[in-house]
Amino acid sequence: MRSSVRLVTNGTIHTGDPATPHAEACVIQQERLAYVGSADRAADKAQALSSADPNPYETLDLRGAHVLPGLTDAHMHLDWYALGLEQVQSGTDTLDTCLERVADRVEQTPEGSWITGLGWDHNLWGGGFPNRQQLNRVAPNHPVALVAKSGHAMWVNSMALERAGITCETPDPADGRILRDPLGEPTGILLEGAAGLVRRVQPLPSVEELAEAIRRALPAIHRLGLTGVHDMGGADDLRALQRLRVEGNLTLRVLKSIPLENLDAAIQLGLESGLGDTMLRLGHVKMFADGALGPRTASMLQGYDDAPEDHGVSTMTPDEIRQTVKRATTHGLAVAIHAIGDRANREVLDALAALEPAQRRHPLQPPASVPHRIEHAQLLHPNDIPRLGALGVVASMQPIHATADMEIAEKHWRARCRGAYAWKSLLRAGARLAFGSDAPVESLDPLAGIHAAVTRCRADGSPGPDGWQPQERLTLDEAIAAYTRGPALTAGMADQLGTLRPGNVADLTILDCDLATSQPQQILRAKVLATMVAGELVWYSGL
Ligand SMILES: [Zn+2]
Known about the structure:
CATH class of the domain at 5-69 and 504-540: Mainly Beta
Bound molecules: zinc ion
Strand content: 15-25%
Radius of gyration: 24 Å
Shape: globular
Largest sheet: 8 strands, parallel
Number of strands: 24
Helix content: 25-40%
Strand order of the largest sheet: 8-15-16-17-18-19-20-21
CATH topology of the domain at 5-69 and 504-540: Urease, subunit C, domain 1
């Protein structure tokens, strides 16, 4: 039998605790930290703790490696991400490579079963959209549906069109377009809502399939150094995660959001935010106040610079937001509201400000209380920035969106970009940040997010050494805190995780270098040597 005591030594531990930021070693007993401090005292402590144990304590030799508190992605979609990993990866350099991958999948798939994929970008393939005939040649007897990287187009073959009942007579749906050739036949490209015609005939994964996909995705998540996620996926995720947990296969801490459509059911059952344990816990009611920046559906106080009449789209009226927030909070449920544009953000803040002071607070007392959060908070009016701090609302943001979106933000928001992705201003104004990726929309890699947060540059160095809107860059410590303490606090678990303090859970991300002394560009090359959750190594390589 293994010892329940583990000494982690011979490296540098960045505790995330401002009172004692660095340590040489730590001692773990079962799932928690028993000591954090000097190497000598750690060895004594490990000895003392294991004296009653029939097995001597184990030593994890860091060999000079650097330890951070376990990194958490505070906004991702576990179902899309895990299921996406199983699909045909269509983001290839050439069309032929993509078709080869489909052909390979055809070999392994029973005839008549769906083949799905994602990630293609026809701009890399010379411009024009691909067509159904190309897919038919490699997949004559399987329905195939490949979603574009943008998410706004779907490429299908003839059998998929047939299953969906799409012919030359099918009218375009109100929210999309079926591309057609000169004879009026569908080409195999479905834009926006037209993809829904195919989606509704595709089988949904069963809970077993979803659980299996998540189980297979866990190593890919841990190898990035992640010890936890806040899952914005659907309700089936909760079932799948419980199944994994019962089987002893849940190695990732998950804060699970509640889709708005399930709010009534949650209230009837008496579910409250914070129910669960440190591994699997109920989070926030997730709702949408507006759309997105790219398609100009983010809800704006003033029109878009390149379309002054266009103010975007509100997906809930201010009244609906207010009533829904009130209903959720009255029943002990904290809210997570998607808001991109400055109008949407203002309306959400107005709704939170309108709550009675008692409701503004989750029924539990801090640190167990679960604060409300705004998802994305991409553009805030300068007057609204201080309100997040004043109301105790967490800004749940994705640094990689800032660098991915900078050109389109400049086009749509021009001078207003000073208040876009305003991490530093938010921190200065007392707001708390929780960072994530929105994976699979963007890369799940937290080091890519930390790099974007401290540089406001893309991986290729653009737009230049100072980055985009450099006044909003964060320090490394601030960025790491937004992947550690921020998510812990948002989950109502600040007293148990997010920092490496005695008594906290032993979640560690072990890196081959010190990010603090690295050039920003090197952050992207840092290697995760090992990831530990609750005292167990859930992934390692080269340690
Ligand atoms: Zn999302």
